[in-house]
């Protein structure tokens, strides 16, 4: 039976107690740690940089899934590599020579991924899928946590699942935006491998139980 991976997003954690919150979700069985990097230019919000990633790297052994929602990620990804990232995911819409950047990231020893906004079609990245370790489908407009899940993104997940399976590509489908226990089931049924969740974990009365509930999702 297929098992879903859960990647809690620290965007919804308590930034005055990041070490505590990361330890909490790690103990509860988180598979990855999702780290949203925003520059106030590519998206209308500003979050963290490499120094914070380097700091939290010291207190966690989780897989660091760094999502660069920034302009010109090709100029900055190496800083996150040095800080302790395990995967670099950049936006299709932010890069001209995407294949070159994917190869650079992979050649550095990291996992490479590409993310697509809700309005970006699968066709824009289809030729890249053989090279990718991760394809991240945004089910909200990137920039802020706590947004409502866009159900019309489910066919995009199913389309990717079909392409990846038919061609036997070694690429995980990650989904980010409005993930809770109900939408997690929908995404998993559509073919997702990794689910990013922020508010439904960190804002819950019992964050550890909420994470465990998400991990129990099956099809």
Task: Sum up the structure in keywords.
33% helix, 8 helices, 219 residues, alpha/beta, TIM Barrel
Summary of the model, kept short:
Helices cover 33% and strands 20% of the residues. The protein is an alpha/beta fold.
Q: What does the model show?
A:
It is a single chain. Helix content is 33%, strand content 20%. With 219 residues, it is α/β, with parallel strands linked by helices. The chain has a single domain, classed as TIM Barrel, CATH 3.20.20.70. Helix 5 (154-167) links the parallel strand 6 (134-138) and strand 7 (172-176).
Shape, per Cα inertia axes: globular
- How would a crystallographer describe the biggest sheet? 8 strands, parallel
Identify the CATH homologous superfamily. Aldolase class I
Q: What string gives the helices and strands in order?
A: EHEHEHEHEEHEHEHH
Low-confidence stretches: none
| Strand fraction | 15-25%
Give the N-to-C terminal Cα separation.
8 Å
How are the SSEs placed, and which strands pair?
Layout: E1 5-8, H1 18-27, E2 32-38, H2 50-57, E3 63-69, H3 77-83, E4 87-91, H4 98-107, E5 111-116, E6 134-138, H5 154-167, E7 172-176, H6 181-190, E8 194-197, H7 199-202, H8 207-215
Parallel strand pairs: 1-8, 2-3, 3-4, 4-5, 5-6, 6-7, 7-8
């Amino acid at each position: 039976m297929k098992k879903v991976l859960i990647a809690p997003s620290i965007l919804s954690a308590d930034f005055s107690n990041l070490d505590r919150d990361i330890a909490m979700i790690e103990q509860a069985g988180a598979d990855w740690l999702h780290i949203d990097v925003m520059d106030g230019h590519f998206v209308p919000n500003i979050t963290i940089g490499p120094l914070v990633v380097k700091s939290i790297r010291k207190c966690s052994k989780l897989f660091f899934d760094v999502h660069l929602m920034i302009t010109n990620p090709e100029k900055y990804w190496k800083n996150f590599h040095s800080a302790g990232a395990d995967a670099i995911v950049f936006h299709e819409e932010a890069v001209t020579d995407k294949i070159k950047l994917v190869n650079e990231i992979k050649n550095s020893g990291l996992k490479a991924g590409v993310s697509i906004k809700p309005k970006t079609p699968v066709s824009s990245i289809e030729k890249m899928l053989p090279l990718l370790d991760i394809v991240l489908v945004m089910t909200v407009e990137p920039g802020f946590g706590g947004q409502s899940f866009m159900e019309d993104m489910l066919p995009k997940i199913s389309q990717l699942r079909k392409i990846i399976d038919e061609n036997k590509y070694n690429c995980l489908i990650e989904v980010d935006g409005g993930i809770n226990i109900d939408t997690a089931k929908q995404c998993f049924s559509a073919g997702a491998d990794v689910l990013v969740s922020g508010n439904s974990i960190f804002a819950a009365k019992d964050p550890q139980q909420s994470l465990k509930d998400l991990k129990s999702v099956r099809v």
